[in-house]
User: Fold these one by one.
Assistant:
Number 1:
Amino acid sequence: MIDVSRRTVLLGGTAASVIRGLCPSSARAEDSARPSLPIPSELRANAEGTIVLNARSGSMRFRGDHDTATYGINGPYLGPAVRVRRGEKVVAQVSNGVPENITMHWHGLIIPGAADGGPHRVIPPGKQWQTELSIDQPAATLWFHPHYYPSTAQEVIKGLAGLLIVDDDEIARLPLPSQWGIDDIPLILQDRRFAPDGQFFDRMNIVAVTNGYIGDTALANGARYPEARTARGWLRLRILNGSNARSYALAASDGRSLYVIASDGGLLESPVELKQLLVHVGERFEVLVDGRDGSAFDLVTLPISQGIMRLPPFDRSLPLVTIRPDGVEGKGQLPTNLAVLPPLTDPLPPVSQELVMNMFKDAQGMMLLKRAGLMAMAESGKTDPEVVAHVVNLIVNEPALAQSDQLSANGVNGKPFSLDRIDFAATRNQYLRWRIAEGTDRMLHPVHVHGCQFRIISQDGKPPEPHRAGWKDIAPISAGGVTEILLRFQHTANRDNPYMAHCHILEHEDSGMMAQFTVS
Ligand code: C2O
Ligand code: CU
Ligand code: CU
């Protein structure tokens, strides 16, 4: 079912034979071709209760011969893993050291609109934003990233994003692997494309506003096909799909099971065993894998159905990271029960809000790809180098849209996003049912709602998959489909700092597929 890459076979042969520690320098000496998986450092509030984040410019060598100009937070690319605890009140202090406006949004955190860091909380270059974050929600793997309209996509491409981990007493009582970087491994998955001069490719053209960003290089924590030396034992992978547009179909190269223990907003009721885990942009899953045998395996991504996302090297099982669980003995276990989640309300409230995602340029984008032969190639299942070259040429060379064309390319409920228009209002402290639908286009949209963690009631009339039945802040809306969610807002969001509801394909968000709402 899963084809094992040659690389994995080679690694598998040597991994079990020697026990080695976790020293990254010895790993480098043994195999200079493979980078070690970078582990973002943990950052807690300092003695004054402040979490200090500095967005800055930097440079990184992703590929042999060129340095790439990047942005990062407290480092050259990506950011630290911020750790907060339920019950804690911290001050987040964000300084903008990059030469453009940013904001900093706490994706998945249940906080008032004024603290949310959406498109209205602009931090100009050289300026600072301080906001109090009062943490009151279950343990979860969240993240933070800029939300500046309309250039979130390009700021995330350059490297502005980081993990935000909420801890609590309940999760501390479970025997889960929790030694950071040893048996508790963060994995930020992204795809990028590089221009010939080594800089990140980034162009808002017709292909991008319709399909989103299409990279040809997979990165894990900013490294290309790195290797993680981990503890021997149960491993916890905290997976964030931090890509702009790409979904990943994750599997272990040797077919070992992935036990999903948590979704976006926290623990599931019990682990869900999967051989393949589809992760859409913005989604997080915590996954336990059994590494007690000490043998190496790759986490791979399998081809997904969307034709343009199957361009090489994503047209086959592509290894993202090698996991070598041959270090110290890990102490974590896979529990049978994880958490008690409240059942969905019975009866469900009536639908109070409908949201329809629109792609106004879908036909135009699709026609180009069809003419290039992409649809026919996707149907045949075989990669045709000529078609690939043609499609890549469109991705790279179609001219950037004029900004007014970009901003009106997509929409919600028939209208492209506008900073000056509040699209709807929601009532606080009340169960709400939203019905989110696809227009008539051909794509899945992972729709995110600020200010809450919600539950999926149904997707296309069916109950959610078990690993999406817990707390979520992203709801996949399948092509032509409908997803219903049950939500409740605990905080307010006023006209000056409204919450956002949007497709998390960042090129869709930046081109109109976003709505804003108040809560009172
Ligand atoms: Cu992760 Cu509105 O964003
Ligand atoms: Cu968010
Ligand atoms: Cu979308």
Number 2:
Amino acid sequence: MTEHGRPDGIIIALDGPAGSGKSSTAKAVAARLGYRHLDSGAFYRAITLAALRNGIHPDGWGDLTHDELDRMDVHGRPADRGYVMTIRGEDVSVEIRSGQVNAHVSQMAAVPAVRQWLMDALRESGARGGLVADGRDIGTVVFPDAELKAYLIADAEERARRRLLERGVGDPPLEEVRAEAGLLQGRDAIDSGRETAPLRQADDAVVIDTTGLTFGQQVERIVALARERGGVDRSEETP
Ligand code: CDP
């Protein structure tokens, strides 16, 4: 047991707007420290996909009950040092990144019952510490007692450019970058404007503007902060 009282290490919360690089950074930081990575957005995405597959019209999402959510059979299956999202046992890691899910996920994530339903699962995964979790409300609502909270921001066009590069479309033309930036900002507006657990920086979060940083630099910055806050390197241990 360490001084922070969590047997497996500290909790690191990474929040920020769409496409700010939270998930890839969180994954790399987790690998560096030998921690687990929890991508909370992937859960919201999987629920959205399940509802779309079940033909539930988005207008009815606000009325989803706990039982109906249970019956969708959405799970995060522990794998390596993270979680693989499944619906009825099927790995949906690729499909949850589709344009259709992108277009609807913020509407699903604004439903209080959905957030409540997920909360227990998310908190349970952090019970032992040794976790890097990323999302919108990790430092404010899910793990308000996280030892390290970082809020990642970046210029919208830079975020859009990175997203398009990730999709492997080569150096994207400016119109495409602008169109993608518009989509990301649309999602940010819904995420920031909702009543339940809106996207916002925790008062005690360290703000990291990644616009001018390389991926390696932003990972190093967070690993260094984690070490200052008592994050012990467990990367030599088996997961
Ligand atoms: O990767 P990207 O930043 O595009 O999004 P994500 O982290 O996969 O999250 C997808 C969506 O889920 C967000 O736009 C939010 O609407 C929602 N979300 C949330 O409300 N709370 C979280 N803790 C994580 C995600």
